[in-house]
Amino acid sequence: MAETLVFCEVPDPVAGLHEIRRVLKSDGVLVMLEHVRPTGWLGRVADAATALSAPVFGEHFNRNAEASVREAVSTS
Predict the structure, then answer these.
(1) Residue 61's Cα: distance from chain center in Å?
(2) Residue spans of alpha helices (H) in 1-76
(3) Cβ atoms within 10 Å of 26's Cβ, excluding its own
(4) Whose CB has fewer CB within 10 Å in the chain, the N or C terminal residue?
(5) Most distant CA atoms of the chain, gap in Å
(6) Contacts of 17 (CB under 8 A, 6+ apart)
(7) Are residues 49 and 21 in contact, defined by beta-carbon separation less than 8 angstroms?
(8) Nearest-CA neighbor of 64 among 13, 26, 11?
(9) Are 55 and 28 in contact (CB under 8 A)?
(10) Residues 6-58: tens digit of each pLDDT
(11) Which residues are CB-contacts of 2 (< 8 A; sequence separation ≥ 6)?
(12) Distance from CA of residue 64 to its chain's centroid?
């Protein structure tokens, strides 16, 4: 089973990734499909949408999933 577009709602993505690493089998593979903050003016739109959606729904349209993965790997 695969879950996609989940980490936009996880309060602490790095902690979530640490938990995945803890429970993933040693030969397991994590494949992520996440939306990320676009560049340019669309990034500013994502920031504005997040300012409205995050407090109400916990939805973050401007996350940098790659940076979260890199941080989780470097701090584990």
Answers:
(1) 9
(2) 13-23, 40-57, 65-74
(3) 4
(4) N
(5) 41
(6) 68, 69, 72
(7) no
(8) 13
(9) no
(10) 888 999 999 999 999 999 999 988 888 888 899 999 999 999 999 999 999 99
(11) 31, 33
(12) 7
Residue carrying the six token digits 């701090």: 75
Q: What are the domain boundaries of the chain? A: 13-74
- Burial state string for 31-70 with b = 16 or more CB within 10 A and e = fewer than 16: ebebbbbeeeeeeeebeeebeebbeeeebbbbbebeebbe
Tell me the CA distances in angstroms from 51 to 22, 23, 26, 48, 61, one per residue in order: 32, 32, 38, 5, 9
* Residue 38, both tokens: 């676009």
Is 0.85 surpassed by the pTM of this model?
no
Distance (Å, whole) CA 7 – CA 40: 22
